[in-house]
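Hi support team,

I submitted a single chain yesterday and got back a structure, but I'm not sure I'm reading the token output correctly. Could someone confirm the output below corresponds to the sequence I sent? I've pasted both exactly as they appear in my results page.

Thanks,
R.
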Amino acid sequence: MGFLKYFLKNNNKKIKNFLERDAVIIDVRTEHEWNEGHLPNAIHVPLNNLKAHIEDIKKIDKPVIAHCKSGGRSARATKLLKFYNIEALNGGGIGDLQKLIA
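Hi R., thanks for writing in. Yes, this is the structure output for that exact sequence:
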């Protein structure tokens, strides 16, 4: 099994574990991207506004799965959330995450 395949399989397990624990999905894409379509029950907090919503996210008191279009912005979002002691995981791109929660 290749490294990338192993990483993706391992990350999928982590995402499923977070979902089983009633994780909140945060979509960090732009307003335009959100309006084009989004996951059911996701919360929209664009990456450039995420820091301003840290306290609100902490109050939810659940693990967080961040996602974007391809995984780059959600990686930055996850890093920021973890910095503020929020249990967070990069859910990657919307397409891949949508397949996991379907």
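A quick pointer for reading it: The beta strands are 24-27, 43-44, 64-68, 88-93. Let us know if anything else looks off.

Best,
Support desk
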